[in-house]
Amino acid sequence: MAVTDAAISSIKDMILSGELGPGDRLPREADLAERLGLSRNSLREAVRALALINVLDVRQGDGTYVTSLEPGLLLDALSFVVGFHQDDTVLQFFEVRRILEPAATAMAATRMTDEDIAELRGILDTFPEQPSTEDFVANDLRFHQRIAEGAGNPVLSSLIESISGPTARARIWRGLTQEGAAETTRAQHAAIFEAIAGRRPEIAQAWAAVHIAGVEEWLRRAL
C-alpha cells in the first residue's frame, strides 16, 4: 500500500471508530504524523485528498476538521467521481490531444527561439520534487501550453488550450490515484524538452505521443 494511501486509511479508521467525529479538530500535524508513523508530507497529501472529497475541512490558520459528514455533502464528492467514471467523452478529448500535440511539439522543435526554450526550461525546472496534486497539474498544463504556443500557429495553440479544460479533471484524478504519476510525467517532460532543445522534431513528436498515449491508456483502464 502506498504511504499516502496508508495515511488516508489511518484517518478513515479514526473516524469510523468514533475517535474523531463530525466537527472534531484533528490533532496537530506533527503529533498525528508521529503517532501514525508517517512523514508530515505523506500526512499532508492524505489530508489534501480527504479534503477534496469533503471528508476534511482545512481552515487556514485554524486547523483541520472533520466535516459534518452529512450524506448530501459526501454525495457531492461521490457524484463527481461517478460522473467522471461514467463519462467517457474525456477519452475523445485525449484522442484529439494525441493527434494535435505531437504535431505541435514537432513544430515547436523547429520554431521556438532560444528565449522560448529557456522559458520552457524554467517551467520544467519549477516542477517540485514532491509536488502536490495541484502543483503537478498546474505545471503540466503550463508545460504543454508553452509548447503549443511555441509551434507558432495561434489556431493550433487555441485548439490545444481549449482541450486542456476538459482533460484537467482526469489529470487531477490521475495525480491523486496513480502511484508514480508525477515522476513519470517529470521524466517524459524532460525527454520532450531535450528533443525540442536539440532541434530534433521527430524525436520530440515521438516523446509527446508516448507521453499523451500513456495518460490516455491509464484513463481507459480507470474507466
Automatic annotation (TrEMBL):
Listed SMART domains: FCD (SM00895), HTH_GNTR (SM00345)
Gene Ontology terms, MF aspect: DNA binding; DNA-binding transcription factor activity
Domain HTH gntR-type: 1-69
CDD domains hit by this protein: WHTH_GntR
One protein family per Pfam: FCD
Record carries keyword Transcription: yes
Keyword terms: DNA-binding, Transcription, Transcription regulation
Domain of life of the native organism: Bacteria
InterPro entries linked to this entry: GntR_C, TF_FadR/GntR_C, Tscrpt_reg_HTH_GntR, WH-like_DNA-bd_sf, WH_DNA-bd_sf
Keyword DNA-binding: yes
Protein name: GntR family transcriptional regulator
UniProt source species: Microbispora bryophytorum
